[in-house]
UniProtKB/TrEMBL annotation:
Its EC number is 6.1.1.14. Keywords: Aminoacyl-tRNA synthetase, ATP-binding, Cytoplasm, Ligase, Nucleotide-binding, Protein biosynthesis. CDD domains: GlyRS-like_core, GlyRS_anticodon. Homodimer. This is Glycine--tRNA ligase. It comes from Taishania pollutisoli.
Length: 514
């Protein structure tokens, strides 16, 4: 665990040093759980958004995108259930004075049993090799069977207490499991209390209940209230989807772990409207489609896993998370939910407006069911950054820090460097730089030795570096260096655009999704 914590510290330090992420308001000693994306962070973030938008909207003719307002009529949040039910069960440790989400403490306790099982399985794999039958081992090994039974027992109690809003039962479960505070190591807990996560503010100049509105805690409701607007203006036929990228706000009591959990964050969501009765088919379809999308980034299949929800939200009949192996361990990256017809029904009831679709094939009106995919942009940014940051020992014994970002997502696609600052090389390099930057984000770099410049580009994640040398002036060729392999090849200037485009274009990612 200490190694993982060190990894997170390395990521935070690297992000600041190279202009990816800065603490917000740092000159005033910062603001807890608020961060600013620096010059390279803003580029990486925009590229992640582009990849999501192109794959979701551009590649699907039945999905369109919108950009809804952050402020919405306050009744929206009454209808959605957020005013009454958007709570976290919180518990305080009296000795450390630290506050925790009670359900997360229990989930982390369950994870210990999961890790014990994984260790047993890994040990057996090494022992039996190719002859190892994992299914049989899991079903018969006494330790694994015992741990699995314990996991089920805790999950059942947790589900029952949370679904019944039995806060005393949640407290008793924490005490029975002898869960201690990670800071103080004691079991000196307060009772469990509910805390609403919505930020409220006043609209207009007069304060009071009449003018009270909320910062949206999710982007989904902006899609639901625009369901008919989009369907009618776009002549959309079920099944169809509405996608959106936007900011959301939650007054998290425990906002921590860098940009993983913040009070202001960005979501990339798509709500897919389907016929009632077909929602679980589409739920499975989107689970697989989103899994493929993540794997196309090349961060490693072993870094992802599905986690089915123990406690379903009030609107869902199926829900799963795609979890990623962050420096803090496996945590939620994306949620796929079958939301039934809850949202549209609620808005129909509270607004008094019909939110139904006429299906010409069935010749009937109905409220569509919804399958949601929702990924946290900031979490995905952290996943990409942490998985890409590597310390490598080279053949000659020297070390380098490399940020092996997926090329299509890298802030700079190519760096152009003159070998020296004389003999007409800077002029030639500038000419190449100007011809490339119409299509690619480029950096011109002439400071320091070539080796130092290569290391600098490795650290910021630039996939390709072009070195302009004396031979360039003779035959119009340059050396192009690959960040990951460090191999260099001679390429004609006339071919540069084609060579770079093949390697860094979004096409290379999107083709894997078709």
């Amino acid at each position: 665990m200490e190694q993982k914590e060190d990894k997170l510290k390395d990521v935070i330090s690297h992000a600041k040093e190279y202009g990816y992420v800065f603490p917000s308001s740092e000159i005033y000693d910062g603001l807890a759980a608020a961060y600013d994306y620096g010059q390279l962070g803003a580029e990486l973030k925009n590229n992640i958004k582009q990849y999501w938008w192109k794959s979701m909207v551009q590649l699907h003719e039945n999905i369109v995108g919108i950009d809804a307002s952050i402020f919405m009529h306050p009744t929206t949040w009454k209808a959605s259930g957020h005013v009454d039910a958007f709570n976290d069960p919180l518990i305080d440790n009296k000795d450390s004075k630290k506050r925790y989400r009670a359900d997360v403490l229990i989930e982390e306790h369950i994870e210990k049993y999961v890790q014990k099982n994984n260790k047993e399985i890994e040990k057996a794999k090494k022992k039996f090799g190719d002859a190892f039958d994992e299914v049989q081992f899991v079903a018969t090994n006494p330790n694994v069977v015992r741990n699995t039974a314990k996991i089920r027992e805790i999950e059942d109690r947790m589900r029952e207490t949370l679904e019944n809003n039995d806060l005393e039962g949640v407290y008793n479960l924490i005490m029975d499991l002898e869960i201690v505070c990670p800071i103080s190591g004691t079991k000196n807990w307060t009772e469990v209390r509910q805390f609403n996560l919505m930020f409220s503010t006043e609209l207009g100049s007069v304060a009071g209940d009449a003018s009270k509105i909320y910062l949206r805690p999710e982007t989904a409701q902006g899609i639901f209230v625009n369901f008919l607007n989009v369907q009618k203006s776009g002549r959309m036929k079920v099944p169809f989807g509405i996608a959106q990228i936007g900011k959301a706000f939650r007054n998290e009591i425990i906002a921590r772990q860098f940009i993983f959990r913040m009070r202001e964050f960005e979501q990339m969501e798509m709500q897919f409207f389907v016929r009632p009765g077909e929602e679980l088919k589409w739920y499975e379809y989107w689970k697989e489609t989103r899994r493929k999308w993540h794997l196309a980034l090349g961060l490693g299949a072993e870094k992802y896993r599905f986690h089915d929800h123990i406690k379903l939200a009030h609107y869902a009949n199926a829900a799963a998370d795609i979890e990623f192996d962050f420096p803090m361990g496996f945590k939620e990256l994306e949620g796929i939910h079958s939301r039934t017809d809850f949202d549209l029904k609620q808005h129909e009831q509270f607004s008094g407006k019909k939110l139904q679709y006429f299906d010409p094939e069935l010749n009937q009106n109905y409220i569509p069911y919804v399958v949601e995919t929702s990924v946290g942009l900031d979490r995905l940014f952290l996943a990409v950054l942490s998985a890409s940051l590597k310390n490598e020992v080279l053949e000659d014994g020297s070390e380098r820090v490399v940020l092996s970002l997926p090329p299509a997502l890298a802030p700079y696609k190519v760096a152009v460097m003159p070998l020296t600052k004389k003999d007409g090389l800077p002029e030639k390099a500038q000419e190449i730089f100007n011809s490339l930057r119409m299509d690619f984000s480029c950096q011109y770099d002439e400071k320091d030795s070539p080796g130092k410049r290569y290391r600098r580009q490795d650290a910021i994640g630039t996939p390709y570096s072009i070195m302009v040398d004396h031979q360039t002036l003779e035959d119009n060729t340059v050396t192009i260096r690959d960040r990951d392999t460090m191999l260099q090849e001679r390429v004609a200037i006339a071919d540069l655009h084609r060579v770079i485009d093949q390697k860094v274009n979004f096409r290379s990612l999107l083709q894997q999704l078709l």
